[in-house]
Amino acid sequence: MKLDELLTSEAAGIVDGALAALRRAHVKGYENAGAAVTRDRLARLYELTVESVRQRSLTALARHVVDVARARRAAGYDLREVQTAFNVLEEVIWKRILAKVDAADVAEALGLVSTVLGAGKDRLACAYIGQVAGARAPTLDQRALFSGTDGA
């Protein structure tokens, strides 16, 4: 199975798996928000992850996570709680990739998903910390990660 096919056909199961993992983590903010709200938030993060992988662009995800940082901080979430949501989604996607993506495509698939969610977590942390500090925190320049490989 190719990554794009997996991301489409396994969408509901991936989001449900991430929701179950987040529940097991007992993250106070998400427990207080309730399962339906939390599932919607995970689904939106998943949609943007898939879009970023397909388009090889982090723009929409980056905008979203800045909004998430503002909203979650205002609601009393700490950064660890929000990062946990990214982590559980990433873990569920990895497991599906390892189980279903063609062996020759696994490394690239894991790299794409990890790059997208890693960039999202970086932007989230910078936005969150910037709010706490009252200034914009710098971010990593990750453009080169999507420019290709040298064939090595």
What would you say this structure looks like, in words?
This protein is mostly helical and 152 residues long. It has one domain: Orthogonal Bundle (Globin-like), CATH 1.10.490.10. The chain has helices at 3-9, 11-24, 28-33, 35-55, 59-74, 79-100, 106-133. The two termini are 24 Å apart.
Which features characterize this protein?
152 residues, mainly alpha, Globin-like, 7 helices, globular
Architecture blueprint of SSEs:
Elements: H1 3-9, H2 11-24, H3 28-33, H4 35-55, H5 59-74, H6 79-100, H7 106-133
Helix pairs in contact: 2-4, 2-6, 4-5, 4-7, 5-7, 6-7
Please provide the ordered H/E string of secondary-structure elements. Answer: HHHHHHH
What would you report as the Rg, rounded to the nearest angstrom? 16 Å
- The CATH topology annotation reads as Globin-like
How many structural domains can be distinguished in the coordinates? 1
CATH superfamily: Globins
Largest sheet: none
Query: Which oligomerization state do the chains in this entry correspond to?
Result: single chain
Compact summary:
The chain has 152 residues and is mostly helical. The protein is built from seven helices and no strands.
